[in-house]
Design a protein that fits this description.
220 residues, alpha/beta, Rossmann fold, 28% strand, binds adenosine-5'-triphosphate, binds magnesium ion
Length: 220
C-alpha cells in the first residue's frame, strides 16, 4: 500500500543542512495500523508528510498503491492526495468562524456536491462521531475532544483508504484521547490503513505494529 524506498530528507536552514530522515525504507500493507514513536526531532512528522505527498524527499521514492507520488505533477499529486489520504493533526486546523457542520461540509463542496447533499453527508459524519448535538457550534464553542472529532469527521468526507495522524491525541486528556484512538481502531477494522505518530505508549500499544525513529532512522 505505502512503500518508501531509501528516502532521505534534508532541510536547509540558514545555510545549514539538517538531515531529518536518513535513508529510510519501509513497507506498509493495506489494512495495517502502524504507530511511529521516537524522541522530539527524530523525524516522525517529516516521515508522515513524505508519506502524504506533502513534502518531497531529497532522495528516494514514496509510492502509494503503486503510484510514485513525487513523479506526479503538483496538480495530479494534490488530486491523488484528495482521493487517497486523510490527515489528522495535533492542532485540528478547523476553520474558526465556521460551525462544526460547515467545517465538515467544506470537502463536499470542494468535490462539487450541492449545498443540501453536502449538509446531509456532513450531518451523517458528525453523527458518527457523536456530535449531532453540536452541529451549529463553532470550534471555540466546543471542547478540544469535540474539536478533534469534528476534524475526524471532516477527514472522513473523502472516504480516504489511508489515514495519516500526527499526534492526534497530543492536545487531549487521556479519556478524550482514548475516544479518538477508539474511533481510529474502528476505522482500521473497517479496512482503513492508518499510520499514527504518537507520544502515548498506551496508544502505540493498541496498534498492530510500532516503528521507532531516532535521528531520522529506524531502530529495531
Ligand atoms: N522546515 C524545516 N526546516 C529546517 N529544519 C526542519 C524543518 N522541519 C523540521 N526540521 C528539523 O528536522 C528534524 C525532524 O523534525 P520533525 O518535525 O520531523 O521531528 P518530530 O519527530 O516530528 O518531532 P516532534 O516529536 O517534536 O514533533 C528536527 O531536527 C527539526 O528541527
Ligand atoms: Mg512532529
Amino acid at each position: 500500500m505505502i512503500h518508501i524506498e531509501n528516502a532521505s530528507k534534508t532541510y536547509t536552514h540558514h545555510a545549514e543542512q539538517v538531515t531529518a530522515l536518513d535513508r529510510v525504507t519501509m513497507n506498509i500493507e493495506a489494512g495495517e495500523f502502524v504507530s511511529i514513536v521516537g524522541p522530539s526531532g527524530s523525524g516522525k512528522s517529516t516521515l508522515l508528510l513524505l508519506m502524504g505527498g506533502m513534502l518531497s524527499p531529497s532522495e528516494g521514492t514514496v509510492s502509494i498503491d503503486n503510484t510514485n507520488i513525487y513523479d506526479l505533477s503538483p496538480n495530479d499529486r494534490s488530486r491523488f492526495r484528495g482521493q487517497h489520504i486523510g490527515f489528522l493533526f495535533q492542532r485540528f486546523h478547523l476553520i474558526p468562524y465556521l460551525t462544526a457542520l460547515e467545517n465538515v461540509t467544506v470537502p463536499f463542496l470542494l468535490q462539487g456536491d450541492g449545498g443540501e447533499a453536502a449538509r446531509e453527508r456532513a450531518t451523517e459524519l458528525l453523527t458518527r462521531v457523536q456530535l449531532d448535538q453540536r452541529l451549529d457550534h463553532k470550534p471555540g464553542e466546543m471542547s478540544v475532544g469535540q474539536q478533534q472529532r469534528v476534524a475526524l469527521a471532516r477527514m472522513l468526507a473523502n472516504d480516504p483508504p489511508v489515514i495519516l495522524a500526527d499526534e492526534p491525541t497530543g492536545n487531549l486528556d487521556p479519556q478524550t484521547g482514548g475516544a479518538i484512538i477508539g474511533f481510529l481502531l474502528e476505522l482500521n477494522k473497517a479496512g482503513k490503513t492508518i499510520v499514527m505518530v504518537t507520544h502515548t505508549p498506551e496508544a502505540a500499544r493498541m496498534t498492530s505494529r510500532m516503528i521507532s525513529l531516532t535521528n531520522g532512522a529506524f531502530v529495531n
